[in-house]
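Question (not urgent): is this output format expected?
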Amino acid sequence: MTGGPGRGDDDERASAMSALLLELTYTFFRNRAESDRITGELGQSSGRFGLLRSLVLDGPSTVAQIARSRPVARQGVQRMADELVTEELAEYLENPQHRRSKLLRATPRGEKIFREMAKRQRTHALVLGAGLPLRDVRKAARVLRTLRERLAERQG
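Got this back:
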């Protein structure tokens, strides 16, 4: 007896979820290292790729909005944003909603770099996904999305 009805199931679920989260962590770090290698060939990083992706796909945003959407420290996003502006991959615009908080937008050069990085990341994804059933990949993505949403709810 494990202490009442459902206790054994809870133990199994906790153990399975712990194993999943540990694998997710290991996979994240390995994938980030590979993404940094891929984007590094273009003089960028996976963080910059993510920032450019946000700007190209979502349009101009403030640094604070981008940081909240991740969630990461605003200062780190600010540093990357300033570097992208220095390299003319992004630019600051006046924000009609807020005088002091400027909007950040990808420049045409930034969009071009983003598209090249996205092409390389797509090739990376195809190599990793080779032989995996599409339904399993989609199901895994749904599970991870649900976990991300639950974490976001807990973090407020």
